[in-house]
Amino acid sequence: MYQMEEERDVSSYELSEEKYDPLEEIHRVIQSVVQFDEYRRTQRKESHNLVRRFKFMLLLWEELHDLLQPFLEIGVTWLTKVKDVLLFTKDLLKLCSQGSKIHLALETEVVMITFQKVYDKLSQAFGDVPCDEIGILDEVKEQDIGQLSFIETLVEFMKEGSPENKECAASVLLELCSSNSSFTLTALHFEVYEYLMEIKQNGTNKAQRKANAVLDLISRSEQI
């Protein structure tokens, strides 16, 4: 079967913020993926599901690019790992778009296992966002317009994103709301409550915990 590069050496990347912009790299990868529009019949459904997730991520990275500068090294390392997962995903989607129809039909089971591996990698990559290290809190606090736009993007992810994206968005929102109650009010303005309730019922285990924690903050803020 077509071999995809699963592991990339993070140390091989230049971590200097002056020479390496991980968000820009990630943005380019996502843009290149969403341009794929035709997939082989045997993998069409899964491919379109992945591309839809990439389109949601594109919205998030466009917001983050303006908010997360400069990066601490640990933030760059995390973003580089995210990029590696996205490149692995891109390789799979390219295979499903341009690979041999006969080969893909014969290797359907193997390809589906690879899709599951991609989902696992994406979940792991977005599971623990180092909010402090990549500067989300400080940067958002300093930009009122950016705050509104960023919170709105998080709420949009909780409304229509994949389970992994909802989990990531809930994690980031919890960090923000824990640091400043104004973020809680902003999120409520964008009707986050109903989406948190939905995640509480149907989200991943971690997303449910994060959603419960945000709902608790909302409840406490209403009692003040």
From TrEMBL:
Pathway: Protein modification; protein ubiquitination. Keywords: Repeat, Transferase, Ubl conjugation pathway. It is an enzyme of class 2 (transferase). Its EC number is 2.3.2.27. The keyword Transferase applies. It catalyses: S-ubiquitinyl-[E2 ubiquitin-conjugating enzyme]-L-cysteine + [acceptor protein]-L-lysine = [E2 ubiquitin-conjugating enzyme]-L-cysteine + N(6)-ubiquitinyl-[acceptor protein]-L-lysine. It comes from the Eukaryota. Residues 44-143 form the PUB 12/19-like N-terminal domain. GO terms for molecular function: ubiquitin protein ligase activity. InterPro entries: ARM-like (IPR011989), ARM-type_fold (IPR016024), PUB12-19-like_N (IPR057623). Functions as an E3 ubiquitin ligase. This is RING-type E3 ubiquitin transferase.
